[in-house]
Amino acid sequence: MSVRIKLIFFLTLILVGAFISLSLFNYNVTRKNVRNEIVNSSLPLTRDNIYSEIQAGLMRPIFVSSLMANDTFLKDWAENGEHGLEKIERYLTEIQNKYGFFSSFFVSASTGRYYYPGGVLKTVSTQDAHDVWYYDFVKSGEKYALDVDSNEAANNILTIFINHRLLDADGNLLGVTGVGLKMDNVSQLLDRFSKKFGKTIFLVDTKGLVQAHHQVEMIEKVNIRDMPGLGEIASQVLNTSGDPKTYEFKAGGDKLFLTARYIPELEWLLIVEQSENAALISAKSNFVRTLLIGAAATLLIVLLSVLTVNHYQLRLELQAETDELTGLANRRAFEKRVDSAFSAFARNSRPFALILLDLDGFKQVNDIYGHLEGDGVLKKIAEIVARSAGESDFCARWGGDEFILLADGDTDRGVALAENIREAVEQAGICNDLNGGSKGRDVSVTVSSGVAGYMVGDTLDSLTRRADQAMYASKKSGKNRVELGKRE
Fold it and tell me: Is 279 helix (H, G, I), strand (E, B) or coil?
């Protein structure tokens, strides 16, 4: 047995022995306090954190739906015969985009029309099962209410709708308006907290039907009265009102602790479950990880591993997002940057434009002087493009002899930048140095450019398509030009 293997063996033996000895000692001390920690600290803290998150997430859409219900434009538009479909489309679109909601809507009491940002979705009817919510809400007399339902305007995605009455000056019903939140958002929140705290977290209505759960297939399909163990105390849990309460029950040979809190805004109950067995396993794991003897050895190993992995990871990421020939960003990196620009526009309407450049005469360079010289031309063009771009711009090689830029600013700024690049390439006389300058003068390399400004609703495909069309228009108009793309 070599010295290296012996060393590894004895180090492992020491670490494992220390881990086992200390973990057993700590576990025996801790197990007596697990129940009190769960009941008095862990469960209440998790419950109250999630309660605060849910309240914070719902207050904004409730407030916005209230603003819509008191909006004089919406009232006047409804009272004046609902003329001008484009007005209500623009209004609902602005509400949806401004506040980042999944849906916005208005259902007219007089015509029954269901308006959404895309126009008129349908006319509600008592015969349509999807429209029961509307008639139930109108009949309830409530000022506003929350309802979980499938969104017909978005492929029947499960949505939390905040419905609000729209009344005229005399208190007569003009319709129902409001916004919708993706149920996935609530489910993801519960899933995140479930993983973070090692607990099962879900929402049920006062009848026990699951309304939100990280397992989406359980929503509106499972009732806690039918759950093993929990079903035996379901009635007590569902009667929780006022101060939160904590319960205990057994299921599958495991002891579980449960706390429930009523959410008046939703008229639902927040339920947080904790397995005693899971808590004990977590406690053992935490104690082992915090032991000083193991921590010193583990920290060193992890540190060395992290430094090594990070070093190679950074190199791989750089290679994955850089064009090997020109040193500019590649298509993948550019697409990520455009996604960021879309997000920035959604947050603060910051304009940007896309510039697509294609080399004129590049085929002649390859045909006459070969691809090696052609590669040299591409490098020089890349240098000019990078030098011309501002600090907030982003340039990349799109493919072949095409380059692309994300210009910060409106189309005027994009056109000006494209023109600067065109002039710089023209004045550079790139081909003059080919083969010592003897034949290079027979070939002229310039750029034809197309510019397209971002418009609401654009995707990367639509934006590049407009820029591409503008670029080809510049080529048809004589090349060495800059053209501005038009909306399709």
Answer: helix
